[in-house]
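Action item from last week, closing it out:
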Amino acid sequence: MSLSFDQFVDQAAVILDLNLRGYKIKRVQRRTDSVMRRYGVQTYDECLELLKNDDEFRYSYLDHFTINTSEFFRNPKNFHFLQDNIIDNFFKSNKKLKIWSAPCANGSEPYSIAIMLTEMGYRDQNYQILASDIDKNILESAGKAVYNTTAIQNIPDDLLNKYFNINSENNKKYMLKKEITKKVAFEKKDLIKEPFEKDWNLILCRNFFIYLTSDIKDYLTQKFSDSLAPGGYLFLGNTEFIFHPEKYNLEKVYSSFYRKKK
């Protein structure tokens, strides 16, 4: 008797060491069925065997399953608010800012922060930017920092010319200069299972909660709040909301920004 999807999810979660039940299950099934079609896999039994024994298939499954799309300065008004109302205020009372992007996907958001801080005149020693993701392949891609036109569409021309080179192999690709890439450190991390560092001043977790179950969203909201320094900010995606933020010792200050109470 072949495996049902429900049985597959629990066994695949063990093989991948990934809490698949933490994500909306219909999305997990859609992504699984999609990668199966791509590889001509007919049953969940066969898919499970490939996850166990075929490294290429397992990496492809994880790449297909995780959230790997983002862009520079996504939702520009929010980045303007961050620059005009948060960053300078932080430096009035902090010698160094700790900034964390999690999950970081293709790296465009932590790199956006690095560009912003550079433009504001802050030096490398004034801040730390860490970017985390569960997907090994997307971390390698983020480290290379080569982007298509969609990813850079919100970047003003002056900043695009200043911080990017057109890829010599493909003139539709843009390569971020080392001046910026060296400012961001990357790490592989499972946000649901692994512990967080403490005392972050700014955490970007954008467009991740929308894929999660309510229970896991609540769990991560508390986990992020606990890891923020007093007065630190959690920066979410434009369509993500925290209902009753006071439960997590947070207060909403603007659009997708929530501040930890002091």
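Closing note: The two ends are 57 Å apart (CA to CA).
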